[in-house]
């Protein structure tokens, strides 16, 4: 009797424990699942449509941008101006003002943001981070760190895919979800309204989507080409400094070790040459900023304006 009675409560206890653990696992799982489901800024239906596009096109949203050659970009910008099909966008700051914008694309990359912020703080430079919305959903704390240090958070689309190749209905959500994800991740007071398409690739429909959202399309005119992953730090520094001019918009990428190596000295030289660093918003607010042409159209000071 004693044995039986002592066994029964133990069994009962064991059963209750098992049920308890299962219950906790269930609740925990539900919470986790809810969090995971809540996390993406983009709707589930939209994410499915992006997945379908990625599968069909073979595009790789996680790789760095592929850029047209300088000659191709030059020709594109000149053709745009010649055909008067030029759309307003930020192509270069005011060429009469000795200021530059440092723009950093494709983040946030864990392990890079922290080190970049230290380099920028040491150099007393405020940069513009063109971050990817989907990655901001994954690493919101990194966006918060960038914003806390006073850098500008700008929109590099939600999925980081080449916009002109996407179905037209994707353009508006790509821009809007991108900005919303960044605002949510960084707790930003307003929706980021500076936007850069992947690879600088845009067409009339992309510009229209940007205008409908009141976003300013921002390009660059000083691209050392670090996205290829083939350049050494010395080359990255040399090209940035070679193409430096008043109103220059410098384009570099997160996730590139050689860029990290090049940055401290490059920033120092730019400052020694008497340039002031501004964000893209500050640059775009200058009445004399250049709004026509494509990426790299105004590559050096001697292009005039
Ligand atoms: Zn990119």
CATH class identity: Alpha Beta
Q: How far apart are the termini?
A: 100 Å
Mean pLDDT across the residues is 87
**Fourth CATH level, the homologous superfamily:** Glycoside hydrolase/deacetylase
Helix content: 40-55%
Put simply, the count of helices is 11
Report the structural category: alpha/beta
Q: The biggest beta sheet, please?
A: 5 strands, parallel
Label the CATH architecture.
Alpha-Beta Barrel
Please state the overall shape, judged from the principal axes of the Cα atoms: globular
Write the layout of secondary structure elements.
Blueprint: H1 2-38, H2 44-57, H3 70-82, E1 99-105, H4 113-123, E2 128-131, H5 133-138, H6 140-148, E3 152-155, H7 171-186, E4 194-195, H8 204-212, E5 216-217, H9 233-242, E6 249-253, H10 257-272, E7 276-277, H11 280-284
Parallel strand pairs: 1-2, 1-6, 1-7, 2-3, 4-5
Helix pairs in contact: 4-10, 6-7, 9-10
């Amino acid at each position: 009797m004693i044995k039986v009675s002592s066994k029964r409560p133990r069994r009962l206890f064991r059963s209750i424990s098992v049920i308890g653990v299962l219950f906790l696992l269930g609740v925990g799982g539900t919470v986790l699942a809810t969090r995971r489901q809540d996390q993406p800024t983009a709707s589930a239906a939209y994410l499915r449509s992006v997945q379908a596009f990625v599968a069909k096109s073979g595009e790789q949203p996680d790789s760095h941008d592929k850029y047209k050659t300088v000659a191709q970009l030059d020709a594109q910008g000149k053709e745009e101006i010649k055909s008067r099909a030029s759309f307003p966008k930020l192509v270069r700051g005011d060429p009469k003002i000795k200021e530059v914008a440092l723009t950093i694309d494709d983040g946030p990359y864990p392990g890079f943001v922290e080190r970049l912020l230290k380099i920028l703080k040491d150099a007393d430079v405020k940069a513009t981070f063109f971050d990817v919305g989907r990655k901001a959903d994954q690493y919101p704390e990194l966006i918060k760190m960038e914003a806390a240090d006073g850098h500008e958070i700008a929109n590099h689309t939600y999925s980081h895919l080449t916009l002109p190749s996407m179905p037209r209905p994707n353009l508006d959500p790509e821009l809007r979800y991108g900005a919303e994800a960044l605002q949510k991740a960084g707790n930003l007071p307003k929706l980021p309204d500076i936007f850069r398409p992947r690879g600088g690739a845009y067409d009339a429909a992309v510009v229209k989507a940007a205008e409908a959202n009141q976003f300013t399309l921002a390009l660059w005119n000083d691209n050392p080409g670090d996205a290829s992953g083939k350049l050494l730090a010395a080359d990255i520094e040399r090209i940035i400094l070679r193409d430096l001019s008043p109103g220059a918009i410098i384009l570099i990428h997160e996730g590139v070790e050689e860029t990290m190596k090049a940055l401290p000295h490059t920033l120092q030289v730019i400052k020694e040459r008497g340039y002031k660093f501004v964000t893209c918003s500050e640059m775009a607010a200058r009445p004399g900023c250049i709004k026509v042409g494509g990426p790299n159209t105004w590559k050096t000071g001697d292009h005039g304006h």
